[in-house]
Amino acid sequence: MLEALPEFAVVLPVQVLGELYRVLVGKLHQAPRVAKTAVLRWSDAYAVRESSWAALQSALDLSADHGLSIWDALILAVASEQRCRVLLSEDLQDGFSWRGTTVVNPFAAERAPLLADLWPQPPAHAAKSTRRRAGRTGS
């Protein structure tokens, strides 16, 4: 899916890169240096967006109102701030929509209609490479 999008259309909230590092080191037992290199490669390839105070305030509301973890809520808030239409996540509630950003599980058995609209043909080699990504679509 990422290969089908122009690089400028993908946004990585900084929390996503932290989560990538945590998963690579903690769950996949990669050496910290190797994980660091992987995170830096992702940050070189796509636009990284930091959290703002406004995003944290929104994340607090999301967490309190919808039961999201504060870190997942912060990822969603940053994606929304960046006007992303889609937040790809296998962890968040598939189909949850907030302020114009919809969570889509790209690995769900049934392909989400929003993904079908954005990518009419599924990629031939769709493989997991990170846990969460936010993607801007359209202009």
SSE layout:
Blueprint: E1 10-13, H1 14-27, H2 32-45, E2 47-49, H3 53-66, H4 70-81, E3 86-89, E4 97-98, E5 101-104, H5 113-118, E6 132-135
Parallel strand pairs: 1-2, 3-5
Antiparallel strand pairs: 1-6, 3-6, 4-5
Helix pairs in contact: 1-2, 3-4
Describe what this molecule looks like in 3D.
It is a single chain. The protein is α/β, with parallel strands linked by helices. Helices cover 43% and strands 15% of the residues. It is built from 5 helices and 6 strands. A 6-stranded mixed beta sheet has the order 2-1-6-3-5-4, with helices on both faces. Helix 1 (14-27) runs antiparallel to helix 2 (32-45).
Q: Main attributes?
A:
single chain; 139 residues; alpha/beta; six-stranded mixed beta sheet; 5 helices; 43% helix; globular
Quick summary of this structure?
By secondary structure, the protein is of the alpha/beta class. Helices cover 43% and strands 15% of the residues. A six-stranded mixed β-sheet has the order 2-1-6-3-5-4, with helices on both faces.
What's the story with the biggest beta sheet? 6 strands, mixed
Order of strands, widest sheet: 2-1-6-3-5-4
* Secondary structure tally: strands: 6
Rg, Cα atoms, Å: 15 Å
Share of residues in strands: 15-25%
- What low-confidence regions span 5 or more consecutive residues with pLDDT below 50? 126-133
Helix content: 40-55%
